[in-house]
Model the fold of this input.
Amino acid sequence: MNFLRAAVREPLLHFVLIGALLFAVTALRQKQAEHAEIRITAGEVAQLAAFWETQAQRKPTAEELRGAIEERIDEEVLAREAVRLGLDRDDVIVRRRLAQKMAFVSDDLAIVAEPSEAELREYFDAHRETYTTPDLYALRHVYFNPDRHKTLDADAQRALQRLSRGANADDVGDPFMLPRELADVSREDIVRDFGSSFADAVTGSTPGSWSGPVRSSFGVHLIKLESHTPSSAARFEDVRDNVREAFLAQRQREANAALRTKLRQQYKIVVETAEGTGS
Amino acid sequence: MRTRILAGAVAAVLLAGGVTAAEGNRDRNAYFGDLHVHTKLSFDAYIFNVRATPDDAYRYARGESVHHASGYDVRLTDAPLDFLAVTDHSEYLGIVPAMNDPQHPLSKIPYAPDLFSTDPAKITNAFQQLGASLRSGKYLPELKDFDTMRSAWRTVIDSADRNYVPRKFTTFRGYEYTSAPDGQNLHRNVIFSGARTPDLPFTALESQNPEELWRWMDGQRKQGIEVLAIPHNSNGSDGRMFQRTQFDGRPMDRAYAELRARNEPLAEITQVKGTSETHPSLSPNDEWSSFEIMDTYIGSATKVTKFAGGYVRDALKTGLEFDQAQGFNPYHFGFVGASDTHNAAGSFEENRYFGKVGILDGKPEQRGSVPPAGKTWEKDEPPVSVARYQTWGSAGLTGVWAEENTRESIFAALRRKETFATSGTRMRVRFFAGYDLPDGIENRRDMVSQSYAHGVAMGSDLLQRGTSAPRFLAWALRDPHSGWLQRVQIVKGWIEGGKAQERVFDVACSDGLTPDKTTHRCGDNGATVDLRTCAVSENKGAVELRAAWSDPTFDPNQRAFYYVRVLENPSCRWSTWDAIRAGVEPNPKLARTIQERAWSSPIWYVPQR
Done:
């Protein structure tokens, strides 16, 4: 008994036993591997030659190329043996790379079914705030270039009277490079092109009549607000394409997550923590 | 008229400013954007400590703030952009960020840690590996990781698609093809029209020969993927970008010219690394030819020796000579401007300049506008890098004339070259030519629709009509956030005795001045800049300038091109603003003021054979 107990504790024996086991496994595997083929294709040989050339800045000699091929065979043999012996398993680099490759080949591959109208409407209702449009304005204006008028304000006033009596706006004011009529622009859009005092005049006026003059970044204008559409949630019909895109993107994300969950189910997952073991 | 407005109102849901109907404005609107932007996915940007993503680039363009590598936030203060393309270097796309990811196998490459060390010498050394690979056009085999590049490319194109808001903000899928044989810059930005792109870009590591890129683009087009390429920094090509032969030195032929014209309708003529319109040695009679000149190779102190072939005006002239002698024109292109920012954020405004290469030029002392602590301008000889960055200008912009702010409409404008470049200002420029433009057109409120009906717009050919002389219409409107306009010029190139000539005509002057009949120059409008404060003269310059112009030297048998250049009054250069903020004298080696400007695409006059 004492002898056995001592033997069990004997590291040398452990070493011998483990060595014998590894030898047995390797021998067995080697037997299986006898027919496994390592083939270096012509394409790969060409690639090896190209790599060689990149680093040496000249073509390899026949002997050098043979050397590169031998190295490649060694690499393949060692890699395969490493996999046979499971040496890839505890390597964080190998694991990350494999996971990355798997994610790359598996993500976004699930075919997401075309959503029904009901599903789209439900999504739209749940995300209404995304599809709200700001206050929108349609307006006309005529422009007076300060460089071309000695009596700028008086000229603008006279033009205002003509417009109020029904003159065609196309016949009034100076040429202007920005559009003389704007449809469906937000206050932000107006500020950007014409400045904030112009925008204030537009948003503060009542539709249907000419007013001004108001100043912009370019000079003086007369304005006529044609219509004001208050901020509103978009109609589903108008944003259906956007809703569909957002819906599909969400479905795709869910599909990717579902795939991972499904893969997880093929494993019993145990996480050991300092407090204890949980699964 | 009312019906038209209402029809527009009903049909369109979310229209950007300046649109009058659902199908857009038939007179076309000016939209401003940048088709040349790098993010952390570019190998160099990442090394410059830039961590901003493609999404950040689009957020910045729409007016949000993003973080600068030098530790502060940047934001477009005047107005958001209308369109943008992220164009990261396709070579080693996403590879350098992966090398910094300890969990990525690329991080195990022996020199990977050096790229991210705190020792500038090590960084430079490791960076040289990549630089040498790009100059030689050969892959570093250890970095040839197509999976990583493919996944980075997907990040780029997904971000472009996700940030596209039709009629509000347009994005394009794109990348930069970074060919620089022997360091001579042949870079191109490749811009796709829509939401279809190949699996991976064609890079300079596939071939440094741009002809191979164009053939690949032809192949894409056959598969229904529309794409164009925009060369940039011809100023750093040492005369090679617009040379008189094919890439390998063989003579040009019609097939080459057509291949090139089909794929490269545009050239980027201004950006941070200098302006490539023309050079004082090429245009000795142009008083404005020395604007933001960069006379070195890209990323090195090597001096450029050949200016011919490196600037667009010269290239357009070369094109005329080929057309005259051989019946084909390899250089028939329009103009765009860009930032080439590597911060995911273009620095367009002189008074808020923040450089373009991350931590390398993010502070005034690094870009030669403020002397290093304890040094003075007299005593200090700046390091090579500083000497380079101080010559860089603030970013340029592209203007397009398009019906509406959508991919389709803007891409079509790029294709037909109805574009203009600016030095960063958002002045608008129109340019038309025709035989039947009515008298007094420049004073008509409908001059644009008249011009489209009776003439051709910038970027077009005007064919000879007997002995008739065309009338030109040039029109510019100031950017309310920038300076006042000083003059509108028409730059003409033509063939005389088989040789291309050039001349600059002032055609509209501010402040009641008129161009002199013999010198074709406006008088001095007296606009000045106070160099202690950068304040500019009040009441000098114009809101808009326009002119109908006939070429006094027109000869119906002479092949010619014409383009518009508009100059603002002088204003402080970014380096002067930096110095004033720091309370020091501006660097005496640098121009203290500049004249912001815009360039229209050319109109070509084409005589019959």
Remarks:
- Chain A touches chain B through 46 residues (CB under 8 Å).
- The beta strands of chain A are 132-133, 136-144, 181-185, 210-215, 220-229, 232-233, 271-272, 277-278.
